[in-house]
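Page 42, continued from yesterday. The earlier attempt failed because a stray header line got pasted into the input along with the sequence. Redoing it now with the clean sequence only.
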Amino acid sequence: MKRFTLAAMMCVICIALTACSDDGGGDNPNALKKIVFVGYQSASSDGDIYVMNEDGSNIVNLTQTADHESRPNWSPDGTKIYFIKYNAGVYDLYVMNQDGSNQQKIYSAVSGGDYNISPDGSKIALRSWDGSDEEIYVINSDGTGLTIMTDNDLLDDACPSWSPDGNWIAFVSNRDGGGSNYNVYVMSSLSGSIVYKLTSYNDVQFEVPQWSPDGTRIAFRRYGNFLLSNNHELFIIGTNGSNLTNISKNSSNDYYPLWSPDGSKIAFASEIDGNF
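This time it went through. Structure tokens are written below.
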């Protein structure tokens, strides 16, 4: 029997700007529960996309290519799987049926493999290089209808995250301060107009904003000289900018917050025990 390593929440590729995406994975929203994840046949092999039953049985490799596939996400209706294929320095966005058939590339050159599917499954927000900087775009789920949502010369926008109602997109940007000074912003998903700047700190990099299921709070990762700590920590904040709270509060690095369906808990990856 072949052995492989699961990487359902581990980001294994260094991203040039900000580490915006975990390695995907999660339950199929359909009644017949399946879990999609990234697996490795060995420590030196490239990743493939797998599915299994929620009890761990019936593991199936859906991609089986020489390329590195990562960051799988179910479509909201559970019929398709989106994922990133990395080859020759380029991250391309693909979609396939839940059994691995009909694999199609829908967008080329997604910066860092950074994308997020709208709650109704009709749109995808992603980060891409426009020739001078990183911008956020929205495309239809079939890859058509590319629309630029941000346009900041020589400044970067990243980590798009749809609100549960699909009306807003949270993201991080260094538009105020430049360099590695990334704060959290919220914009309209229709027009791209900035609604408000959620955080305002210097020498800090905020990453991976994740909306709570009820849309009232956003969890994110913070790195930088904030509260005199340089490790990665997790925070939550109200969508009105209130009640900024450190929820990890330890000396280790914590990553990739993920809300429970009822919004009462947050799962995350951590180095608290010396391992990832």
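Notes: The two ends are 26 Å apart (CA to CA).
Reminder to self: strip header lines before submitting.
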